[in-house]
Model the fold of this input.
Amino acid sequence: ESPSVAPRKNLAETAFFLPHLTTDEKGQVTFSFTVPEALTGWKLTALAHDAALRTGRLRDDTIVTTKPLMVEPTAPRFAREGDRFRFPVKVTNTEEAPQTGTATLEFFDAESEQPVALVARGAAQSFTLGPKETKTLEFEVAIPDGCGYLRFVATAKGKAFSDGEEGFLPVLSKRIEVRESLPLQIKKAGVKTATFKELAASAESSTLR
Done:
């Protein structure tokens, strides 16, 4: 219940575990396991049998992982240099009491871990949520040229609860490799001159690398 939060990183879709089963005098079985940090619903299937090969099966029971205050960013699969888009971040209050706080979206260079300022008009937005209410906040993001692989962190901090989630955003270059070719027909011995006109004119380009 601390306002400070470490962002959730393990968002795997499968929870693998080796259960340790405990039974009581009524034959009821309990066990515990650790799920990934994704806030979602899980399908649980259990199979039991005894020495007489009598079996019982639990089919598709549902387990839901939630927090009192949840933040769920929806990142695009990739971005390209020069893109401008709105990055949606969903904030959910699962409590019966209203909550207020601040949501932030930050970007870091994935290699150097240096912060990168990509969010227009600040990286923080305030929110007010009623009981069991969900709101989607939008952050305006601009991708500059020369931007590499990015790591983003979305957080939501209230007075009593907080949450965070991080992920990665690949950035593709907008540059295109340009080539020029000429056919050279050599029919007899001698010297023949060919000129790459487009290549020669490219010296005047201000964007060529």
The chain is about 0% helix and 40% strand.
